[in-house]
Each structure stands twice: as structure tokens, then as C-alpha cells.
Design a protein that fits this description.
This protein is an alpha/beta fold. About 50% of the residues lie in helices and about 20% in strands. The strands form two sheets. The chain has an eight-stranded parallel barrel with strand order 1-2-3-4-5-8-10-11, surrounded by ten helices. Strands 7-6-9 form a three-stranded mixed beta sheet, with no helix packed on it. A hairpin with a 2-residue loop joins strand 6 and strand 7. The structure holds glyceraldehyde-3-phosphate and zinc ion.
Length: about 280
Amino acid sequence: MLVTSMELLVDARKNGYAVGAFNTNNLEITQAIIRAAEVKQAPILVQISAGALRYAGVEFLPLIVKKAAELASVPVAIHLDHGPDFTAVMQALRAGFTSIMRDASKLPYAENVAEVRKVVEACHAIGVPVEAEIGKIGGAEEHVVVSEREATMSDPDECAQFVADAGFDFLAVAIGNAHGFYKGEPQLDFARLEAIRDRVSIPLVLHGASGIPDHQITMAVERGISKINIDTEIRNAFIRSTQEYVAANPDQIDPRKVFKPGIAAMQAVVEHKIEIFKSAGRA
Ligand code: G3H
Ligand code: ZN
């Protein structure tokens, strides 16, 4: 069933688990995510970036996700990932999104607050919750490109001030996480996360979770992370498994057969993450 992210993430924060937020670009990824959530009886967010909307069409991809959510046996929210501006947010609301991120984290503090407040006013008027970010998460996720030098961790006091000043619902934190695959093993700053959790009562979000070892994910969930974003590992599973299938079956030209192992591989990734996030059986 289609829900907003508010009920999902408030329950997650209260009960010490995290809801997975998985990125989709098309029908096949959407099916893999929803099937995994149903197998695991887990609440879930399916998230769509501005780049995905450009790729698949703003009138088209949200309709697929929305219908899949309505038909699902588990609660599903449709989330705008890294909303780049007010226009993208308005397009998403019009398309029926039930959760919005406005990412103005690259802007100076006062402008970040002003941008987020504008979006909060519009979204809250129709009951849609808003995620915002402070600090700069390293790595690349479409238009969000932050070099190692530019990356800055979230300051716990500034996090509390940001929540109070901008009035949004979920806070994305930079604690050593980065978008895309990591070069070595990432080291999340758990002391920083604990300090943020102690100052901020709203649900906290971990971006760039692909490649973070399971034991660090467990520690993050135990310290108040309530939403965890995964994109790269899903893409990787799809492409690697499709490459293998095509190499083994060079004459197969039926896309339905070619995509099948890729869908299964993505579903397996999502099922595993749901277990690690402790959201299995929470639907
Ligand atoms: O917003 C999306 C995510 O933060 C995904 O990050 O591609 O590193 O899994 P990832
Ligand atoms: Zn992200």
C-alpha cells in the first residue's frame, strides 16, 4: 500500500530499526525492490532521483512506482532523492510522491535553511514529509558531486540548529559516508552520530550506504539511523549479472529472458539489506 515516509520513519526511530530506501530507474528495478520487500514483509521507500526522472520521464516512472506501491502487500513510500530545486519538488508532488528530499547542502547555511523552509511549507500543506541534509557527503550521485577535499562531516550543534531553523522531518548526515563505491573500507564516525542523535529527535538518514560493511550498518542502526539509501549495489548487481548472462547466452535476444537474472540479483541485494537494517517483519 502507498503511504508517506512519516509513519515509516517515526516507527523506525522509535523501535530501533532502519527502513531501506532503494533507488529505481525503471520497471525492472522497481519490481526487484518491491518483490524483496514483500518476501521480507518490510516497509520500504522506493526513491527516484531527478536524473531518473529525466531518463524515464516525469510522467512515466512515478506512475509505475505508484501503481506497484498501491498493489504491494507492504507499506511503500515514493521518495524524491536529492531534490535539486523547488521546481523538481513541485513536479514530484504533482506526480504523487509521498516523501521529498530537498538537497541544498552545497549552499551556505542560511541559503540551505531558506531553500528547505520553502519546500517544507509547500509539502507540509499537503501532508508530505521532507528530508534535508547538512554537511557535505563525498562521492558522486548524479548531479551531487563532492570531492574528497570538499566533503565535510555534519556538526552536531549545527544539526540541531538546522532542524530548529528549517522545520523539516528527517535529517541526512555526513559521518564519513560517501556516494558510490568506497576506495578502502569506510570508517563511519560513530561518536559523531551519537552526538547528533542526542541533540536531534527526528529520524536520521544515512546516504551512500553501498559498500559499508554489514557490522558498521548494524552499529549505525543501533545509534539512531532510521533510513538507509542504497543505489550503487543495486546497479552493480544488475549489470554484472546481465553481463554474465549475455556472455553465456550471446544469441538470446528476448529482453525478458536477458533481464531475468539481473532482476533476481537486485532482489537478493535488497533482501539482504532489509535483514541488516532490521526492518524484516516490520510491515
Ligand atoms: O541517495 C542515494 C544514495 O545515497 C545511494 O548511495 O549509491 O552509494 O548506495 P550509494
Ligand atoms: Zn544520496
